[in-house]
Amino acid sequence: PLGSKLVKDSSASNTAVDDTTGASGTLYMVEVDNTANSAIVYFKMANTDDATAGTTAAHLVLMVPASTKMSYVFPTGIAFSTGFSHWCVTEAAESNTSAPSSAVVARYVTS
After folding, report:
1. Tens digits of residue pLDDT in 8-36
2. d(CA 45, CA 34)
3. The sheet that has 69-80: what strands, in order across it?
4. Which end of the chain is less congested by CB atoms within 10 angstroms, N or C?
């Protein structure tokens, strides 16, 4: 599969970024750069065009260790039928709204 859209958020935080591609699609790859933080972060994505961190249930949660850049590849893709929204927090709990202390850079490829 070949993705056709690249989303980059140079400051992923506890504020959801909604409808990043403007359409439904398939997610193929996510890269999260947490090298600026000395604590774990959780990058969350929801199949919606309107999310709220701490309220909206994430459809995908990716844990990224402290001081690390991680890439996650989904060879057959993950379908998002409504849209792509994302946010980044410091704990895995759905109710968590704590922002990382430093910038987290997130990129993902969709079709």
Report:
1. 999 999 999 999 999 999 999 999 999 99
2. 16
3. 5-12, 104-110, 25-33, 69-80
4. N
Cβ-based neighbours of 34, under 8 Å, separated by 6 or more: 40, 41, 64, 65, 66, 67, 68, 69, 70, 100, 104
Q: Per the structure block, which two tokens stand in for 25?
A: 């699609």
Q: For residue 3, what pLDDT band results from cuts at 50, 70 and 90?
A: confident
**How far does Cα 97 stand from its chain's mean position?**
14
3 state DSSP class of 103: coil
User: How far is 94 from 49, CA to CA, in rounded Å?
Assistant: 18
Kindly calculate the radius of gyration of the chain based on its CA atoms and give it in whole angstroms: 13
At 36, the amino acid letter reads A
Angle at 85 between CA 80 and CA 87, to 5 degrees: 135
Q: What is this structure's pTM? A: 0.96
Q: Are the C-beta atoms of residues 77 and 61 closer than 8 Å to each other?
A: no
